[in-house]
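User: Please fill in residues for this 310-position structure.
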């Protein structure tokens, strides 16, 4: 009987040791880099050796601007929206109403006398199976902070574009640019900064006394990153983070007569690149096809959008 037990133990030991080895390997390996899982696989062309989820880089040799305007279709009663905003100011009402006109007028629609709309996100994305190759020179130009302030009871700016990650290789590895969203409460009252994004960005809720500062590392994803305040629930702002620098916001003019109102310009877009062009507004949603408008970047390119008021 003793000899039988020893034989069973001898047979079991190699399997047990192998299990420990495999577990040890799995536990010791840390994931230092992220993957751009949203990117689709490459459709291999004739003679191509790329297979699986590898992507083809778009290597820019010349850059050009992409410009356009966001034109309003329909009417928006800005005065009515502003009255509703001010009526809804319950907490710290007097202090909140002491802010600038930009802080105390409605935030959803910024419209110039030219019937063009500001605060519309505009960006491009590569076609399926491709990615933008980002140079060291481009990375050096990335500011480490995009600052969002709360001087009274509104987030300034109301919308912001971030470039926090870039695709580093054909496998879709994402590496950080170092840029963060830097939120400052420079008001005399307390705020909290609550964030809500998609699956890649966990919800956060930071209480911020007067003078407090918080950094948020926002991952690129295909939904907007909403910033709000529970103490003053009318306070909202919107952020979209990208894995490339080819994104912007349409202009909110210095005043309603500013002819630049509702125009946009994406600097240094790769000339000749076949891409998809997107525009998104916090109330109207995507302007046009949510899958983007296919275009090929040419010199002196102008692409306008129409925003239907909702």
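Assistant: Residues filled in for all 310 positions:
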């Amino acid at each position: 009987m003793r000899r039988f037990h020893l034989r069973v133990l001898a047979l079991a030991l190699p399997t047990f040791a192998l299990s420990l080895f495999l577990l040890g390997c799995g536990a010791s390996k840390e994931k230092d880099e992220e993957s751009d899982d949203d990117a689709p696989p490459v459709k291999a062309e004739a003679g191509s050796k790329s297979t699986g989820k590898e992507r083809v880089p778009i290597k820019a040799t010349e850059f050009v601007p992409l410009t356009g305007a966001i034109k309003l279709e329909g009417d928006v009663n800005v005065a009515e929206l502003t009255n509703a905003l001010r009526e809804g100011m319950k907490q710290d009402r007097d202090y909140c109403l002491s802010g600038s006109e930009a802080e105390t007028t409605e935030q959803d629609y910024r419209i110039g006398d030219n019937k063009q709309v500001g605060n519309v996100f505009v960006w491009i994305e590569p076609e399926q199976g491709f990615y933008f190759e980002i140079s060291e020179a481009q990375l050096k130009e990335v500011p480490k902070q995009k600052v969002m302030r709360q001087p009274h009871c509104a987030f300034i700016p109301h919308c912001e574009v971030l470039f926090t990650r870039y695709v580093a290789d054909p496998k879709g590895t994402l590496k950080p640019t170092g840029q963060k969203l830097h939120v400052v409460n420079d008001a005399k009252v307390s705020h909290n900064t609550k964030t809500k994004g998609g699956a890649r960005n966990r919800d956060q809720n930071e209480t911020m006394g007067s003078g407090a500062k918080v950094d948020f590392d926002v991952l690129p994803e295909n939904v907007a990153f909403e910033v709000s305040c529970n103490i003053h629930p009318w306070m909202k702002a919107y952020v979209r983070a990208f894995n490339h620098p080819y994104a912007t916001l349409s202009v909110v003019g210095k005043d309603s007569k500013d002819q630049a109102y509702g125009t946009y310009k994406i600097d240094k877009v790769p000339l000749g690149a076949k891409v998809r062009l997107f525009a998104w507004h916090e109330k109207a949603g995507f302007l046009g096809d949510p899958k983007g408008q296919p275009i090929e970047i040419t010199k002196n390119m102008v692409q306008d959008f129409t925003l239907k008021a909702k």
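For context: Residues 2-28 form the longest helix (27 residues).
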